[in-house]
Give the backbone structure.
Amino acid sequence: MVSPMESTFFSISNKPSSDTHLNVSLGDPSLSHCNSERGKRLHLAQINARSLLPKISVITDIIHLYNIDILVISETWLRPDVPDSAILIKDFNLERADRKSHKVTRGGGVAIYIKDDLSYESVYNNQTPFLTDVPDDIPVDLCLVILKFKKTGLAIIGVYRSPNVALSWESDLEEALTHAICESNHMVCLGDFNINAADISHTCWPRLLHISRSLSLRQVIKEPTRSDSILDLIFVSDDLLLLDSGVAKLSREFDHDLIFCDINLDLSTRPSVYRVGRDFKRVDQTAFNEAASQADWASILNLSSLDEKVDRFSQITLNLINRFCPLRRFRIARPRPPWFSDNVKIIARARDIARSKWRTSKTVIDRDKYVLLRNFATSSLRCEKSVYLSSLSDRPSSKHMWEKVNLASVWSGQRQFSWGDLPMDPTSNNDFFIDTIPSAVASETLIRDLQSSASNISPNSQNTFVFKEIDLSYLCHAMKSFTSTATASDGINTSSVYLCVPSCLPALLNITNTSLRQAKFPSA
């Protein structure tokens, strides 16, 4: 089945046309994207060219016919003596990273064509390397640019990895990805990795998957790109809105199929997330305590049924909570990233104060101070982010962790008990254990345990187990040990009960002791 985006791409005939390099079936003209209708879409694609120079005309036609905004070319096979003018495309800027060493054989190299209406910064190419101690025979070719938008940046990385290389490629790729994510908020990585994503047994695939997950990247190409293998991959940031992705067939001139993706350019705004809840921090405690003291808690003591007691308690509590702490709609703010440390927070606050002062005074001194703090805050944030991401990549995978746990025999993985005969509802569970106690085989350990807990067993009980009722101090101690803040089906959580203390304690104690005395749980 052909995706909507793939229908806008092309099927190139094996028989060349007389007046052009392409014989393209355009289909419905409305499916073709034009620059004026691009809007907030950004069209990215990647092709393994296996020598860019003799195919530059074909690639030029592909770009202009289908309005590709950014095209990554892997295996350019370019040498330093090939000028940019020989491979330029009209209305596009070019960034290239040629293979540094061609001593053994030709190959490698990455280039990125970027539409000239997109503002970007070149971070890594032939002239601006950022990797440290790069050898001449580096096994992975990289080219990195960062698109500049109003409030954020988008890193585009072109990658080509040689098929037969040692594992040293991992550190180079990981350093490039980490550098890109530190320089921008979002990232798209396209290229020919020569790692078959369809074969999970591939020796390099688990490591590549671990690197991508540690940086919150997801791989979006699911169809074969060469024969039955998925060698050409696209990794995108988890928070990017992916509009479309897929594979498009090319002619026999190309050894690999074209891969593409469409992303949403509106990166600065996020849809707001809301939830419904109560704000217990803004409750007028004095007024609430006065209203709780006047509530009819005593009516609970006069009821005989446990379920009636619980229903009455819930009704009184909910009436008080709804009156002083009604349900309201909250907007959930985006949490701060984990690398936004306390030191960065202090520096950012000083930067904001300096900016406010400069906007008021308009003096050169205040402006210079603000610029200094702004640059310091930016570099500090990037440093903290880099350290955090490096720590993530150093952590072992969950599979590795569980292998260590199994070797340590912490958990055998075998079930020690059979619960097949145990009923599921709480009251039946209680009856099950009560009926089981008289038939238990007496042993010295059992007798010693029963003697140590004799205070909790009624002395006149021989064949039944009876719970001992609790007092007010034990109830208060138990309430302090509650850690869950989840709201039950009746709409009450522990925070709601805490607000009603101490007025509700006699009623709550009565409900608890009634449950222990009757040896049953309330149905609500």
